[in-house]
Amino acid sequence: MPCGINVTNHDVYYNITWDDGTVITVRGVQGQSSGWTAEHGDSGALVFTVSGSTTRQARGIMSAGGGGTVYWTEAPDILNSWNLHLNPHV
What we know:
Oligomer: single chain
Order of helices and strands: EEEEEH
Strand order of the largest sheet: 1-2-5-4-3
Number of strands: 5
């Protein structure tokens, strides 16, 4: 699990190439780390923040990355694309 990722761009567009050669443009967030961040096959992994000893917040899902750079799609963008909303009163 990579740690210490710093957000470097909150609104970045990047291309993802599927195995069949299809290229899609995705809107997301870019992060940087001085260490390892992601490898092929990590797409779809949960991205979350940790604050304090007990607080965790889902941010979105991993879309692309390698080396010290990672890209993810924020949870609200994913939900909005399907016209879904979280119920904060549950």
